[in-house]
Amino acid sequence: MSQVYRQKVVRADGKAITIAQRRAHLSYCFNGCCCGRTERGYAAVPVDTYKEEWLGRKLRNVVHLTKAGCLGPCALANVASLVFDTRSVWFHSVNSAWQVRLIFDYIESMIQADRYLQPPAELAEYVFNYYDWDTRPNEPRPARTAAGETAIEGIALLSHADTDILTLQRARQELPVELPVTGISLHSVRSEEQMSMMLEGTLGRRRILVLRVHGPTRTIAGFSVLTEHCSHEKVHLVIVSGTGEIDPELVQAGNVPLDVVESVTAYLGLSGSRNMAECLKYLSDRLALTGHGYDPPATMPEHGIYISDIESPGFEDWERRADPGRPTVAILFYRAHVLSGNTTFVDVISEALDAKGLNPLCVFTSSLKAMENGTPAVLKLIEGRADVLVSTLSFALGEVNTGSVTLAGDNVSALAALGIPVIQAITAGTPRGAWEVSRRGLSALDTAINVAIPEFDGRIITVPISFKERVQDNPATLYLPDEERIERVAGIASRLARLRHCSNSEKRVAFV
User: Is-contact 283 266, C-beta < 8 A?
Assistant: First the structure.
């Protein structure tokens, strides 16, 4: 008997299940529209023989037997289908116990031979091929041509950060029309086959490829296929780190000079559609010898105020709109969302707070770890102005010691110095559909970076307020707000904010 192999599978509810893998799968049509329908003139299906042979030959751990619905085609009833070692064999007119035994004899012969075999002569007349895999002509793949693009030209950006792809979309209007660009999220590339397919399309027509990665190149599916393409087609490959550091491994994996890697790192690190556009024009001029012209990287503010209908607002703009008689709730989110235009979820939170009689104060930051005099610089914009802070930032301000005790330190004291409740609103990194069907709720990654780790800062954990969804005709994903969940967070913030304005005699304390 063949050795049994096993696989560990994590169910949607988070429970790990170990399954025994099968080498073959035999399915037979029983309750379809034709097979076994004796009242319609079709022969009976030898159901009992299928099960008796399967159990009697002790094949349960090797072959899975399925009593199925319609397998098709009806004109060949009664139909059975066998998959063995990735090969498919179809049988028609299986009307007798004798034929079923022949099929199981055939299966046992392949198990003993430990390989796929052609069906024996007795079964050959009952075999047909329902798939066209072996008969479809193996035609050569079409040349890489498309309307308006007959040569290898332009630039493609592949990034682990969807905000990069969104920023690229906004930068298109600042680019010359003769400079075609393509944006691809590396999260959408799951296999070598996918990478190969992309290289047969638009990606394969780009002269310069820029990869902005979070982690080593081995985490990129099909990376070897990509580098082989670049070598064969003489395509420039620029690889930079998403953390803004010059990584020797990434420099070596690419094929451009070090100064190009340093320049691209600077442009993309400073973010914004303007820097993105200038970076692409720089690469085109530097590597493809075009003459578009470009400006050096421009510094963008690391922290600031966001108001949806005002460009580069200041505190005076916010103060003109704020009602002094209302409590204020600050909303803290990443600067990358402002620079990429991915701010719908922030706008919806702001509207929900305003509807509850609160002043929303939207503040963006590059990171809580950007310090000024030993304190997170962005907190200076919030201190003394807000009654509650709603944070959508991941991770924790301080260091978390995995495998040992994490002590309360500067991260807790810095936030405690604000003297206000800090609520953690979760921007989930998965689609809403995945969250709804999962009994576990948030993914393991979201639970770690948006729940467990932020708790070390003393944040009050709430609920997901947005989900990453792919929008039609957009290569990136957007943080689409969930209005019902945002309403809940706004309610929590409202009650906490109003509690600060109550006298002690009006407050009640409960121990739960």
Answer: no
Residue 143 has pLDDT above 60, yes or no: no
Residue 145 has pLDDT above 70, yes or no: no
Backbone φ and ψ for 461, nearest 5 degrees, come out as -80, 135
Q: In angstroms, rounded to a whole number, what is the distance separating the alpha carbons of residues 168 and 239?
A: 17
Q: Give yes or no for a contact between 383 and 354, defined as CB atoms under 8 angstroms apart.
A: no
Q: Are 171 and 280 in contact (CB under 8 A)?
A: yes
Q: Give CA–CA dist 251/335, Å, rounded.
A: 27
Most confidently predicted of 123-132, 412-421, 468-477: 123-132
Q: Tell me which residue has tokens 């490829």.
A: 209
The single-letter DSSP state of residue 120 is P
Helix (H, G, I), strand (E, B) or coil at 379: helix
Closest CA to 368 of 345, 395, 331: 395
Q: What is the DSSP letter of 8?
A: E
Please list, in sequence order, all residues whose beta carbon lies within 8 angstroms of the beta carbon of residue 402, skipping any fewer than 6 positions away: none
Looking at residues 214-228, what average pLDDT do you find? 93
Q: Which of 494, 480, 491 has the alpha carbon at shortest distance from 433?
A: 480
The answer on pLDDT for 409 being more than 70 is no
Q: What is the 3-state secondary structure (H, E, C) of 258-283?
A: HHHHHHHHHHHHHCCHHHHHHHHHHH
- Residues 83, 25 contacting (CB under 8 angstroms): yes
Q: Which two tokens stand for residue 508?
A: 């009640």
Which of 64, 63, 67 lies closest to 48, judged by CA? 67
47 residue type, one letter: V
Which long-range contacts link 253-258 to residues 24+ away (Cβ below 8 Å)? 253/217, 253/227, 254/211, 255/230, 255/231, 256/287
Residue of 460, 396, 395, 393 lying closest to 427 (CA atoms): 393
3-state DSSP call for residue 429? Answer: coil
Rounded to an integer, what distance in angstroms lies between the CA atom of residue 324 and that of residue 459? 26
**Backbone dihedral angles phi then psi of residue 483, each to the nearest 5 degrees:** -65, -35
Tokens (6 digits) for 67? 């009593």
How far lies 323's CA from each of 34, 310, 311, 359, 379, in Å? 73, 18, 21, 7, 21
Residue 17 makes CB contacts below 8 A (sequence gap 6+) with: 8, 9, 10, 11
Structure tokens at 406: 């994490």
Percent of the chain with pLDDT over 90: 71
Please give the pLDDT value at position 146.
Answer: 46
Amino acid 407: pLDDT: 63
- Whether the predicted pLDDT of 136 surpasses 90: no
Rounded Cα–Cα distance for residues 189 and 427 (Å): 22
Alpha carbons 244 and 269: distance in angstroms, whole number: 6
Residue 418: CB atoms within 10 Å: 17
E strand segments, 101-222: 127-128, 155-159, 181-185, 208-213
